[in-house]
Amino acid sequence: MSGDAELSGIVIAGGRSRRFGADKRRLRLWGEHGPHLLGHAVMLLQPLCVETVVVLNDAETWPDLPARIVPDEHPGSGALGGLISGLQAMRAPAALVIAADMPLIVPELLLALARWPFVGDVLAPTPPGQPDQPQPLLAVYRQSALPVLRHTFAAGERRLQAALMALAWVDPGPELWQRYDPTARSLINLNTPADLVLAQQWLRQFPI
Length: 208
Hints:
Shape: globular
Strand order of the largest sheet: 3-2-1-4-6-5-7
Mean pLDDT: 91
Low-confidence stretches: none
Order of helices and strands: EHEEHEHEEHHEHH
CATH topology: Spore Coat Polysaccharide Biosynthesis Protein SpsA, Chain A
CATH superfamily: Spore Coat Polysaccharide Biosynthesis Protein SpsA, Chain A
CATH architecture: Alpha-Beta Complex
Number of helices: 7
Radius of gyration: 16 Å
CATH class: Alpha Beta
Largest sheet: 7 strands, mixed
Strand content: 5-15%
């Protein structure tokens, strides 16, 4: 399973953009008439999911976002707290989860993840050549992951990837990248201004 099971879509969007220096969620990488970064993430999930949930704590500043906004119940605790808040809010048996600051996700790769059959708590691809580094914010989570993540969080863990290792996780393997994203550009996220320059270079080659 996931197979043809219904999925919620979850966008983790509660970061403070400290290293970036501005609210990166509002960047318009596709021009002034294109979507902002958060809107683009929502658009990626909508065709694949029965609902789209966005986790953030400034809902009043996003009145036109076409998604269900839920608060991060653990603000300041990093992406793990945001993930727990999103999974608690999902209405489907599983969720396709991405971060708001990943502008180069290949839609075909997301579709493949949504349809990939697996047995376990989470389907989390690893970067090419790094089989021990599952990507927790480009993944499919089942409801069974939630109690484990809550327990891990309550025990004081705040590192999302470390928390993921407490789950029964499955790696779809190199076939996923070879077929849908040979350059693994889907993994690029915007943490610093230098990351923005890199993403803009990629978008000139692969406009989305």
